[in-house]
């Protein structure tokens, strides 16, 4: 047990990758004034990808409808600002709580299944919520989008501006907090048992681990983080549309993880950055065939980097124990 705890703490160290990502964010702030809005979208998508990586990459819960929680968080934050209070931090917490509740309730049914059935159930949940948002026009404004709400200053000091500076900092601070929380969770005894369940649920059950309860907790936490990403989108963009619950968004975040690599928190960063930036540039160059660029990149990554781009960072990390190397090869952290 002490050896397991020691390895857990060693994996929580920050590396050159964290320093590089922080430097890139600082460079964007100081040199990319014209691209802060796009950069904020990248930050939000990173949080969303982290949420899916927690359930899929670490828990092995297959999902094709993760946008359900992003959309629930977005609508919750928008409706909270419209009818209760424009205070953003409270709205963020409310959105996370409601998304977690939806994840908890839906997870009770979803986690009873596996494989294709599980995938289809997650897609069903997202589709049902999309249709509910579409027909409940008096609440969500349907396909017109939820607008007309205002968001007050963050902590009463930082007012959102048209240049996106406060929005970028707001999303960046939330991302850092989410990332730190997930680093602690996935390397804690709880996180290690969840990864064990992903590898061999039967063996973990025989060891006395409450498999379904652990997976349900991970799924609800993943939903809460996705809800935070949706709430940030609603608060910063001041509009919530049906696309926040769409299948396209669920598919996009899966592509992000395929590019970056699952079961590694860095994968969410690399995948979201490349996906959003490449999509933006490719669409600007060729609005008709821009998806071809993403398709070619995905094929190349699957062919030459099957563990995702984040797998390359392992070559530059410090020496690992044989157990850690074996876990990395199986898709671990």
Brief rundown of the structure:
This protein is an all-alpha fold and 333 residues long. It is 71% helix and 0% strand.
Overview of the molecule:
It contains 15 helices and no strands. The longest helix is centred in the C-terminal third of the chain and has 27 residues, at 211-237. The chain starts with a helix and ends with a helix. It has helices spanning 2-11, 16-31, 36-58, 67-83, 88-110, 115-135, 137-140, 165-186, 189-199, 201-206, 211-237, 247-260, 265-285, 291-304, 322-329. The radius of gyration is 20 Å and the shape is globular. It is mainly alpha-helical and 333 residues long. α4 packs across α11. Helices cover 71% and strands 0% of the residues.
What is the strand tally? 0
Strand percentage lies at under 5%
Q: Report the end-to-end length measured between terminal Cα atoms.
A: 19 Å
Low-confidence stretches: 318-322
* CA gyration radius, whole angstroms: 20 Å
Number of helices: 15
Instruction: Calculate the mean pLDDT score and round it.
Output: 84
- String of helices and strands: HHHHHHHHHHHHHHH
Summarize the biggest pleated sheet: none
């Amino acid at each position: 047990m002490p050896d397991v705890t020691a390895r857990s703490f060693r994996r929580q160290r920050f590396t050159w990758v964290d320093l590089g990502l922080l430097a890139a964010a600082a460079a964007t702030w100081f040199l990319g004034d014209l691209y802060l809005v796009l950069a904020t979208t990248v930050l939000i998508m990173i949080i969303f990808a982290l949420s899916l990586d927690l359930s899929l990459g670490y828990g092995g819960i297959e999902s094709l409808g993760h946008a359900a929680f992003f959309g629930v968080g977005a609508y919750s934050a928008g409706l909270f600002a419209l009818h209760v209070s424009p205070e953003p931090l409270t709205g963020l917490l409310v959105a996370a709580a409601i998304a977690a509740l939806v994840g908890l309730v839906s997870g009770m049914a979803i986690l009873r299944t596996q494989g294709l059935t599980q995938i289809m159930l997650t897609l069903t949940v997202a589709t049902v919520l999309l249709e509910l948002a579409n027909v409940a026009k008096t609440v969500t404004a349907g396909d017109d989008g939820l607008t007309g709400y205002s968001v007050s200053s963050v902590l009463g000091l930082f007012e959102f501006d048209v240049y996106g500076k406060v929005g970028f900092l707001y999303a960046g601070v939330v991302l850092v907090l989410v990332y730190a929380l997930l680093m602690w969770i996935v390397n804690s005894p709880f996180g290690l048992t969840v990864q064990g369940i992903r590898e061999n649920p039967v063996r973990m059950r025989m060891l006395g681990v409450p498999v379904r309860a652990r997976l349900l907790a991970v799924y609800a936490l993943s939903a809460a983080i996705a809800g935070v990403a949706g709430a940030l989108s609603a608060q910063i963009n001041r509009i919530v549309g049906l696309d926040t619950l769409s299948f396209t968004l669920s598919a996009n975040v899966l592509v992000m993880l395929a590019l970056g690599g699952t079961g590694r928190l860095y994968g969410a960063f690399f995948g979201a950055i490349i996906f959003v930036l490449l999509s933006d540039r490719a669409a600007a160059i060729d609005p008709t065939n821009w998806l071809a660029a993403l398709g070619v990149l995905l094929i190349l990554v699957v062919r030459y980097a099957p563990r995702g781009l984040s797998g390359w960072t392992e070559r530059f990390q410090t020496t690992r124990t044989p157990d850690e190397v074996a876990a990395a090869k199986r898709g671990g952290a």
